[in-house]
Write a structure and sequence with these properties.
- By secondary structure, this protein is mainly β.
- It has seven domains: 25-215; 222-327, Immunoglobulin-like (Sandwich); 336-424, Immunoglobulin-like (Sandwich); 430-513, Immunoglobulins (Immunoglobulin-like, Sandwich), CATH 2.60.40; 518-605, Immunoglobulin-like, CATH 2.60.40; 613-704, Immunoglobulin-like; 710-797, Immunoglobulins (Immunoglobulin-like, Sandwich).
- Helices cover 1% and strands 46% of the residues.
- The chain has one helix and 61 strands.
- The strands form 14 sheets. Strands 2, 3, 4, 5, 7, 8, 9, 11 and 12 form a nine-stranded antiparallel β-sheet that branches. Strands 16, 18, 19, 20, 22 and 23 form a six-stranded mixed β-sheet that branches. Strands 47, 49, 50, 52, 53 and 54 form a six-stranded mixed β-sheet that branches.
- A hairpin with a 5-residue loop joins strand 49 (645-649) and strand 50.
- The longest helix has 9 residues, at 171-179.
- The chain is flat.
Length: 798
């Protein structure tokens, strides 16, 4: 079967088939109900979207019942056929809804059906399709609509019978109907001419549908914009190469699918010279989509217009309404600034006292001015046609001030910057503290003095309290009392006001109250020289930094906090015994009876170390030497005077030794085994004893040699080539540890011992049972239980 021109009927197959001949009349069955379906079945790679359309009604007529119409929702007969009641002749009428295609162009359309039964496949297929007039009611044999034009022959020349799929082109027929303004079209299916009455030409057809690819022109573009600003009256741009944009939509779009591929043509021209039109066409994009065009050449200032139209593969939209805009890329004149309240070079006004500033720019299209004391933070507009404006500004601080001003035109162009410099007179009142050394909780008398004439009142604020207003005396001064209770920073702010209502600037007085306690120690000087050695009790004395101190909270090295009550004079003492040498920190807070907590005192002290030194000729520090059974002397030497003994340990139980007159001591230590778990490393920990004080430790590290036996065996050398598997072989074990009396060896069948001879050797016999790699593990042992390290002997049996 040749490939179909049209999308396949949903659920159908195109595989050829042939049915045996049988009575067409015997296949007649059932009544059909008309249905319609719309299916998008084509990729939108070009203009037009495929739809599979079912007829809104399917009816066939019967010559035996000439006044009855028979709806069909399954297959239906055409031509002559026989039933139990006799011979029949049928024609079929299919009506399709064209309303969705009004205003569209049919690009391609084809009917799709197939045969379910044929009376005689030897007879040629002669099924005609005609377009008919619109039926006023369901067609019958006696009341059938008139035929208007023949569409063609269904499946003419198609050899397979019955045909699983038959097609016929309906493009022109549907387009003609649309051109005539029809909202429905009806097609007649019948057997050609007199053959309609020949039973050999009768057949049954599957439900029929039409695959339609139709196209509508894109919509006229909308949402015209210039440089991302919507088209509107008074639209300006400052770009000499503006970006023009529009939204392109197409009615052929379907939910879940992209629409047609569309282009946009942009046209622009000087608004008063439309004949100087320039057009540009975009690439293709799927609708709906925004498209834009940036004018490539630099345009002069002036009034412009642009419009956009859209097109798909088959049709174009109307042009959009024109969008007019003004291009103005010329900045306005730099402004001038004047002020009689704050003239340049003269100390005037004061903080928060407003003054009038006049901005002027010689530009015809002036929109206003941007200005500010730190940058263009504010904008003021000018009246239409005006070139200046008055602005009221109240400086926020005294001293030199600068006003930054730019003029702005209607297009948004900004001029160069003007700097207007003026001087703001200091007006903040003076504050005098009569008791500057007062501590926390003690009153302070503050006097406010004016810096302006005719001051009648002051408003002050202490920390976070509400503001308080007090009157000024005849001399313009006033006195207030505050009681700072906040540790650390306290703040007073004050302003004055004149009889004329002029405010002053703000004065501020910072009162910093140091409330942290002080700390001292004889044994461990604070922040100074190194103190006593570890283990020496030290007395630390705390003195208050604020009145009415009742207790202290202290900790060492950020450890657990402890509390100590203060004496009647506010001091307290604690005893602390350091167990480590070096740098220590001490944190101390105090608390008064009303619950006020002081700032934290963070102090440091140094603890001396009297950890001893250790030396050994047999076992040098950080070296590998000796081994199990090898005795070594270790000498301990004091780091300070008064050492009476030492506490030491080789990682096991601690031992003690008395010191000689010079404070040193020597011990002898014999390792009894090789420390396999530390790979031979041994740590000797030593602390000196001075009276009742034990020093911080010294750690002395060294490594033992394993002193494991050596193994030789000529019968089974390591490189292989000796006796074979199952053959006994001798191995000689030679001791490296002094005093060895026996060897311990591990073989695949378990652990064994063998006595060492007078020469420190022994011979054993082993029989490898298999080829490959073998390992023999060997150590030695003395009569008093000292064990060497273990080593392995490798050999290969080929």
């Amino acid at each position: 079967m040749p490939p179909s021109r049209y999308p396949a009927l949903p659920g159908s197959t195109q595989a050829p088939s042939r049915r045996p001949r049988e009575s067409f009349a015997a296949l007649l069955a059932g009544t059909l109900t008309a249905t319609a379906a719309v299916v998008v079945v084509a990729s939108p790679a070009a203009a037009g979207v495929w739809e599979y359309v079912r007829p809104v009604s399917v009816n066939y007529t019967d010559s035996r019942q000439p006044d009855t119409s028979f709806p069909a929702d399954n297959d239906f007969p055409v031509g002559k056929w026989q039933s139990d009641t006799g011979m029949h002749t049928s024609q079929a009428y299919l009506t399709f809804d064209l309303a969705p295609y009004q205003g569209k162009t049919i690009i391609e359309a084809g009917a799709d059906t197939g045969e379910t039964a044929v009376t005689d496949c030897e007879r040629p297929r002669e099924v005609e399709i005609w377009r008919t007039a619109d039926p006023s009611s369901a067609p019958t044999w006696n009341d059938a609509p008139a035929t208007e034009a023949k569409v063609g022959d269904l499946g003419a020349g198609y050899a397979i019978c019955p045909a699983p799929r038959l097609e016929i082109d309906l493009t022109d027929a549907l387009q003609d109907a649309l051109d005539e303004g029809k909202e429905q079209v009806t097609f007649l299916l019948r057997i050609k001419g007199d053959h309609q009455d020949n039973p050999q030409h009768g057949r049954r057809l599957k439900p029929i549908g039409v695959s339609i690819k139709a196209n509508a022109a894109p919509h006229a573009p909308t949402q015209l914009r210039v440089d991302n600003r919507d088209c509107a009256e008074g639209l300006f741009t400052t770009s000499r190469t503006p970006t023009l944009s529009a939204r392109i939509t197409d009615p052929d779009s379907r939910d879940g699918w992209a629409g047609d591929l569309v282009t946009a043509t942009f046209a622009y021209w000087p608004a008063d010279r439309p004949d100087e039109r320039t057009e540009w066409e975009s690439s293709r994009y799927y609708a709906p989509t925004p498209l834009q065009y940036r004018v490539p050449q630099s345009l002069p200032d002036g009034r412009y217009a642009f419009a956009v139209k859209a097109a798909d593969e088959h049709a174009a939209s109307d042009w959009s309404p024109a969008c007019e805009f003004t291009l103005d890329a010329t900045p306005p004149a730099i402004p001038t600034v004047t002020s009689t309240d704050y003239p340049e070079g003269s100390w005037q006004g004061g903080p928060f006292i407003p003054g009038t500033f006049t901005f002027t720019a010689d530009s015809d299209d002036l929109a206003g001015f941007r200005y500010g004391e730190i940058g263009p933070t504010d904008f003021v507009a000018v009246d239409e046609g005006s070139r200046s404006v008055d602005v009221t500004i109240a400086p926020t601080s005294d001293g030199p001030g600068t006003l930054y001003v730019w003029s702005v035109d209607k297009a948004g162009n900004r001029s160069g910057q003007t700097y207007y410099r003026f001087l703001v007179r200091p007006t903040a009142p003076f504050i005098t503290d009569a008791n500057p050394s007062a501590r926390i909780g003690e009153p302070r008398e503050l006097t406010f003095s004016p810096r302006m004439d005719n001051v009648v009142e002051y408003t002050y604020r202490f920390n976070d309290d509400d503001p308080v207003t007090v009157p000024a005396g005849a001399d313009g001064t006033t006195t207030v009392t505050v009681v700072p209770r906040r540790p650390g920073m306290n703040q007073i702010t004050v302003t004055s006001r004149t009889s004329g209502g002029l405010p002053s600037g703000i004065s501020r007085l910072d009162i910093y109250l140091v409330t942290q306690p002080s700390v001292s120690s004889v044994e461990y000087p604070i922040g100074g020289r190194t103190g006593a050695p570890t283990g020496t009790p030290g007395t630390f004395v705390f003195r208050p930094g604020m009145p009415d101190t009742v207790e202290y909270i202290w900790s060492v090295n950020r450890g657990p906090q402890q509390t100590v009550a203060a004496q009647p004079d506010g001091t307290a003492s604690v005893v602390y015994t350091p167990t480590k040498s070096g740098y220590h920190t001490l944190q101390v807070d105090s608390r008064s009876s009303d619950g006020t907590v002081s700032e934290t005192a963070n102090v440091s002290f140094q603890v001396a170390s009297h950890a001893p030194t250790v030396e050994s000729a047999t076992y040098p520090e950080y070296s590998a030497a000796g081994g199990p059974g090898v005795a070594g002397d270790f000498t301990f030497r004091p780091a300070s005077e008064g050492v009476t003994g030492y506490v030491y340990s080789f990682g096991e139980q601690e031992e003690t030794v008395q010191a000689a007159g010079d404070g040193s001591a020597t011990i002898t230590w014999t390792p009894r085994s090789y420390p396999t778990e530390t790979s031979g490393w041994v740590t000797l920990t030593v602390r000196a004893v001075v009276g009742s004080i034990v020093s911080d430790p010294t750690e002395y590290m060294f490594m033992l040699l394993p002193l494991a036996p050596t193994v030789t065996g000529e019968d089974f050398p390591p490189s292989g080539g000796g006796a074979g598997a199952g053959t006994p072989g001798e191995f000689t074990l030679t001791a490296a540890m002094p005093g060895t009396t026996e060897f311990v060896y591990r073989w695949r069948d378990g652990e064994h011992t063998v006595a060492a001879g007078p020469d420190g050797t022994a011979t054993i016999t082993l029989t490898p049972e298999s080829e490959g790699s073998h390992y023999l593990y060997v150590s030695s042992r003395s009569a008093d239980g000292v064990t060497s390290g273990e080593m392995y002997h490798y050999f290969y049996v080929g």
